[in-house]
Amino acid sequence: MKDLHKEPRRPSSSPPTESPAHAREGEFKPLQLGPLSIWPPVELAPMAGVSNLPFRRLCAEFGAGLFLSEMITARGYRLENEMSRLLAASAADEWPRSVQIYGADPLDLGEMVKQLVADGVDHIDMNFGCPVPKVTRHGGGSAIPVKPRLLARLLRAAVSSAGRVPVTIKVRKGIDDSLITYPDAGRVAQEEGAAGICLHGRTAAELYSGAADWDAIGDLKSQVSIPVLGNGDIWEAHDALRMMRSTGCDGVVVGRACLGRPWLFGELAAIFDGRDPAPPPRLAEVIRIMDRHARALVDFFGPERGVYQMRKWCSWYTKGFPGSAAARGKLSRMGSLDEMHAVLAELDPELAFPPGALRVNRAKRGGTQRVRLPEGYLLCRHDDTPPKSPHTPEELAAWERALGGG
Ligand SMILES: Cc1cc2nc3c(=O)[nH]c(=O)nc-3n(C[C@H](O)[C@H](O)[C@H](O)COP(=O)(O)O)c2cc1C
Predict the structure, then answer these.
(1) pLDDT for 336-350, tens place per residue?
(2) Domain 31-278, what architecture?
(3) ∠2-235-211 over CA atoms, to 5°?
(4) Ligand 1 pocket check for 184: Cβ under 6 Å
(5) pLDDT tens-digit profile of 345-392?
(6) Domains in the chain: boundaries
(7) Ligand 1 atom nearest to CA at 125
């Protein structure tokens, strides 16, 4: 079998020698999702606690593409949960406005999609890849594609409410190696009018461990005629070319690599436009970007929550810079942006970006799991009954805390 992906990790950003380091003229087309034409064919992955408006805007400043919101639950949105509404919010100049939704109830999904469309959203993505036990145990998240008729029902509810706004779905390969669901998901997506499908090349059992299976992405591409977005292990810009060339996929979705590296979208834009990307920034420039990011988080979430959120970003931005470990310890407890600046001022601004920090997993460390499904779930895979959704605000809050991932 072709081994598209499992090559030894390169320690630096040096591109592979066997193929051109940037796209040849006309080699790739814009990603077409319904009426939307996206260039470069690159998407910021939906990431809970990450892909909020401040970060999306920052990434977009470096290079165009599609910048998805983090997952927002349809039930929370319908109940007018304050945080759900805030996370679905956008800025007037954000285009395309792209929101990822999660839900397992057709009524919730249809209603949320109607409201988002009325509010001017340009693209909706549906998360059917969440591997979290609390969710799969009730038949939600990555358990949904196990039942193709249920997947079809939920997708139909969204597509029929979306009108001309394109709806895509995001899935994993399956539950585990013995229960692979992406071929069914691709067929359903195509039959139900999805504008595209994103495949994260891991099973729910694999969580984020091992190498993403790009063969599966190529296989899905060969089975459907709707656009396929490939996802998993794009750490450097040239990985995106490598994935597109080796799988034939129509676009790439970048997740963990851009945590603390938003300029990666500039590198991706350059490489797809046939140019050499700029070298990664020195620490002084990274600190300037951190400052912009921190201010935007504070503006958006308010001072307390904004600073709290920035703590994890500080750790991601400074990862790998020599002598930064002690600073990271202090930054993980910081109480204000002044404190952040004081700690960062102790570091040498001339430090070059460490090559060893390029292919580093900044979130969701390794490990696998045995996926929990509801009792007897596999006995009737033709069933299309939606799983139970949380009803009370307390149930919903507990549920939303557990969600995230795909
Ligand atoms: C912090 C974090 C939060 C995530 N939240 C979501 C989410 O809300 N929805 C989703 O579909 N996937 C989510 N994912 C999965 C990513 O979208 C992506 O599929 C995964 O990270 C693999 O891509 P990568 O190898 O480029 O990181 C999350 C991943 C991370 C690291």
Answers:
(1) 999 999 999 999 999
(2) Alpha-Beta Barrel (3.20)
(3) 40
(4) no
(5) 999 999 999 999 999 899 887 899 999 999 999 999 999 999 877 667
(6) 31-278, 283-354
(7) 11
